[in-house]
Amino acid sequence: MRDKAYAPYSNFKVGAAIRGASGRVYPGVNVENVAYPEGTCAEAGAIAAMVAAGETELTEVYVIADSPAPVPPCGGCRQKLAEFGKGETPVTLATVDGAEFATTIADLLPGAFTPAHMEKG
Q: Catalysed reaction per UniProt (predicted)?
């Protein structure tokens, strides 16, 4: 899936796969735009595909890039993952050469902003 990313400016292609609570896997790729901040991350694309299919809970995340070491999601995507997954949700970060790093959403985003922060006392 990573090879389908649209990254003509950075040539840094990222792929993500998210497993929903149903067991179905939703792919995503990064999509760049000449106006750099207008692009989307692979994780965000996979989440959007999951939500479009009617699911709102993810149970596993896998991110892969052609880099020397496994690449973690950006800060915005960490918050997006926390929106749809529990803290203990496994996240695997990988390189195309086979290196992998196992972590969790909570480890990627300690102190995540959650719906509990929106509750009025």
A: cytidine + H2O + H(+) = uridine + NH4(+); 2'-deoxycytidine + H2O + H(+) = 2'-deoxyuridine + NH4(+)
